[in-house]
Amino acid sequence: MKKGFIEGSLDRVFKLKKNNTTIGREILAGTTIFIAMSYILFVNPSVLGAAGMDQGAIFAATALAAIIGCVATAFLANYPIAIAPSLGSNAFFAYTVVVGMKIPWQTALAGVFVASLLFLLVTVFKVREKIINNIPADLKSAIAAGIGLFVAFVGLQNGGLVQKDKSTLLTITDFHNPTVWLTVFGLVLTLILVARKVPGNMLIGMAATSILGILTGLIKMPKAIVAPIPSIKPTFAQALFHVKDVFTPQMLTVVIIFFLVAFFDTTGTVVGLLEQAGLMKRGEKVSPRVGKVLLSDAISMTGSSIFGSSPTSAYVESSTGIAVGGRTGLTSLTVAVFFAASLFFSPLLSVVTSQVTAPIMIIVGSYMVTSLGNIDWNKFESAFPAFVTIAGMPLFYDISYGFAFGVMSYVIIMVVKGKAKKVHPIMYLAFLIFLFLLFALNLAH
Q1: What pLDDT was estimated at residue 442?
Q2: Which site from 269, 304, 334, 440 is most exposed, i.e. has the minimal number of CB atoms within 10 Å?
């Protein structure tokens, strides 16, 4: 009786029969997705730790933000899509905003909070379609590819595979440092696992690299495996306390980038995943349910900033769960349950060093660069703005500058070629905003 009641309740909430799926299949799909994306629990504290933030608090904040995102997606949209802090935005947060711009991490969190409110507004008032449809597709693809190169470059640095050089600025490492070989081992092993399509490949790669590090004495043995949930007190609500610090030219640029990256990242990922699941046809307009996934991400991003983590996004790893039959929000709810259970495993953070996480950043970066194939390289008005965006992000070591110069060069080329009328007012507005902010930043320095 009780089993029948539970099955009936889940079917009413998630419409399992209508979607031709079962409870067992949905749980299996959620388990598969969690294994595929669980690396973020350890990579996120490592990346944001470079910004001077408490790694235990970030670990808890990462899990909590993922729980909010997955639960929201489950009940609002009923889609098998997981949401958590993303590997592109956290690198921008730590290495560009905090380390590069020398902005306090508390103020950067406030920037994430303001961007999440902006995300909420455009989603609730359904402005999202206008933004999605009127920024050139080639430029959107270039943003993803540029961030991918930036993330991979940071991974190469963190793993010690590149080093400074007086003549060429950068060069390959000399391999005398034993920790570099730990990175090489992790990269080669994870590449093999990914190529062989082994479930949980990245998690297994990180675990094996950590174990090798412990056996060779390069990584200290953890004091425990299970422990009480880390306190989020060091980071909790810091975003709210520093909202007043956001309204400067420098931080407004950061807010715009946080918003645009989160917005386009989630939109592109969701559309691709739904097409894979057969829940949306290629070329079909954005539906209200897709809007609810964006709303879920905006809610999760708001919670993430308050708890003390970088922006969230829909995870492409959700495709692993879709591949084994996940079709409803019960899949996402299962992912949330696993993230809740993972809160008790924070002691493992001590064995996940930068050499352990570097291979993951390099490989994920390569995934993001695949969007290069979507760019029309035969048209100069598409090719050059895309090139500036892609090259600028890693070379300037700043995602915001890469995107700004991409937008500005697009507008200039289109006007010069006599195609000014084909440029949407949104792009002209973006051009003026970036131009003003660049001048303001230059004056500030």
Answers
A1: 59
A2: 440
Residue ranges of E strands in 229-318: 312-314
Q: Supply angle C-alpha 219, 221, 227, rounded to 5.
A: 125
Distance between CA atoms of 107 and 122, rounded to whole angstroms? 23
The structure tokens 């079709």 sit at 327
Q: Which helix (H) or strand (E) holds 201?
A: helix 201-215
In terms of Cα–Cα distance, which of 310, 333, 316 is closest to 79?
333
Q: Rounded to whole angstroms, how far apart are CA atoms 355 and 361?
A: 10
Q: What is the pTM of this model?
A: 0.81
Backbone φ and ψ of 83, nearest 5°: -125, 135
Dist CA 148 CA 366 (whole Å):
6
CA 397 centroid distance within chain: 17
Q: d(Cα 10, Cα 328) in Å, to the nearest integer?
A: 11
Distance between CA atoms of 276 and 76, rounded to whole angstroms? 20
> DSSP string of 310-330?
--EEE-TTHHHHHHTT--SHH
Task: Find the angle CA(422)-CA(426)-CA(427) to the nearest 5 degrees.
Answer: 65
> Where do the DSSP E strands lie in 315-369?
none
Summarised one tens digit per residue, pLDDT across range 203-262 is 899 899 999 999 999 999 988 899 999 999 999 999 999 999 999 888 988 898 888 878
pLDDT average, residue stretch 392-419: 89
Percent of the chain past pLDDT 70, that is, above it, reads: 93
Domain boundaries, the chain: 19-137+169-356
Q: Which residues contact 157 (CB under 8 A, 6 or more apart)?
A: none
Give the strand pairing for 83-85 and 162-165: unpaired
How open is the CA angle 192-197-200, to the nearest 5 degrees? Answer: 90
Instruction: Report yes or no: 26 and 332 within 8 Å, Cβ to Cβ.
Output: no
H or E stretch including 280? none
CB 142, CB 392: distance < 8 Å: no
- 91 contacts 150 by C-beta, under 8 angstroms: yes
**Tokens read off for 13:** 């909430």
**Nearest one of 371, 229, 314 to 37, comparing CA atoms:** 314
